[in-house]
Fold:
Amino acid sequence: MANILIVGADQGIGYYLVERLLEVGNSVTVLDRQTEHVEMLKERYPEGLLTVLADACDASGIENGVRRAVEQFGAVDIAVHNACLCTFENERDTGCEVYQKVMDVNYFGALRLTKAVLPFMRKAGRGRIIFTSSGVGVTGFSNISPYAASKGAIESLAKCLKIENEGYGISFHLFHPPLTDTKAASGISVPKEFKADARKVGYGLADHIWSKKFVICHCAGQAAQMMLTYHFPLSIGKMMTRAASS
Structure:
C-alpha cells in the first residue's frame, strides 16, 4: 500500500479522503493547522495515521511534516495539497492583501509542498503530486476572484511541473471536486441540496487517487462536467453566476 501525505485534511473533503485511504490500507500523514477531527481516526488506524501541526503558509512546517512522514512510513508515494482559503466579496470590496493571503495558502502552499517533497520523490525515482483545484478556477464566478485566481494558478503550475518532472518518474495531477457541502463553500449562495456530499466526494477521490488522468474526479458524472467546463469556460461561468443569483 502507499504512503500518502495530505496538507489540509482535518475536515470536509480532506477528512473523508483520509478516512477512505486508511480504510483500504494506506499510510497517511496529515499536515494541518488543526488536527483534532482527523486525529479521531487514530482509534481505528493507530499504526497508519500520522498527524503534524503545520501551516500551508510556513515552509519550515511543511518541510518538517514531510521529513516526519518519510521517517515513519518511508518514501512518499503521493502528496496532496488540499488546504484552501476562500473569500466571498467582489473585487471592489476586496483589498490586495486579501488576494495575497488567498494566493499564499492556495498557490504558494501547493508550491511549498512541492518543493518539500520533490527531492525525496526524485531520489526514489517515483511519485505523484496532486493539487485540489476548482471549477471556478477554469470558468470564473462572481464574488470569488481571489480564490478562483489561485486555483487557475495551480492549474498552470501543475501543467508546467508535470512536463518538467516526467523524466524523474513523477507525475502531477488535479483533483476536481464539485461544489460540495463543506465549511469552505458555505459562503456560496447555492442551496445546500445542490451541493455534493463531502463523504461521497472524499471517498470517490480516494478510490481514483491512482488515476493516470491529469484531471481526477470522484465520479464519471463530474468528469463529464469538467470536460464541458474546459471546453466552454466563460459560458459556464456566466451561467453558474446567473443560477446562483436567481
Observations:
- Strands lie at 3-7, 27-32, 49-53, 78-81, 127-132, 170-175, 215-216.
- The chain has eight helices and seven strands.
